[in-house]
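Quick start: what a row looks like.
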Amino acid sequence: MGGKTTMTTDREAYFDAYQEYSKVLRTWFVVYGIGGPVLLLTNETLARALKASGEGKCLAAFFLAGVALQVVLAALNKFSMWGIYFGEF
């Protein structure tokens, strides 16, 4: 029918997945690495409420644990996809 069809190879599909996980990992670093602390430092009402509750340290630990888990999982997915992509060569 005269139209050019494009077919993606497995290698290209793996690279696309790898690239997507790279973006996700960067997003987690930026959003949680910068966004969370900035929110706490700039929102005086939130900071006072956390101090008054006495649970600030516990919430900070849970926040950091959640961030760490997300970053580890995104990195694991990224490296897994890199391995699959590299294996196609």
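That is the whole record. The two ends are 33 Å apart (CA to CA). The helical segments are 10-42, 44-53, 56-87.
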